[in-house]
Write a structure and sequence with these properties.
Elements: H1 12-20, H2 22-31, H3 33-42, E1 49-51, H4 61-64, E2 70-73, H5 81-84
Parallel strand pairs: 1-2
């Protein structure tokens, strides 16, 4: 058994971008943030959150810990790994 979504395509932003298009998703963030938030809140009940990219999240760890379904945080090589740990 394995999840339907796995690997690089396992995040909701990729799925929404494929459905709406990148430009429309950016417009939605500005013009309809509550509707977009409502769509994403649906996944809070069913999914796990893996957060991170290429930015240094060292100062945001406390904020990220507030996410109920946080499973992991990706730490970029330029970050202070001890601080993030």
């Amino acid at each position: 058994r394995y999840p339907i979504y796995s690997g690089f395509n396992a995040d909701i932003s990729t799925s929404i971008t494929k459905l709406r298009g990148m430009e429309q998703l950016m417009i939605d963030m500005y013009e309809s943030p509550q509707e977009l938030h409502s769509l994403l809140a649906f996944f809070e009940k069913f999914g796990l959150v893996h957060y991170g990219c290429c930015e240094d999240l060292g100062e945001k760890i406390g904020m990220l810990r507030q996410l109920k379904n946080l499973r992991s945080i990706a730490v970029t090589p330029v970050a202070n790994v001890r601080h993030c740990a």
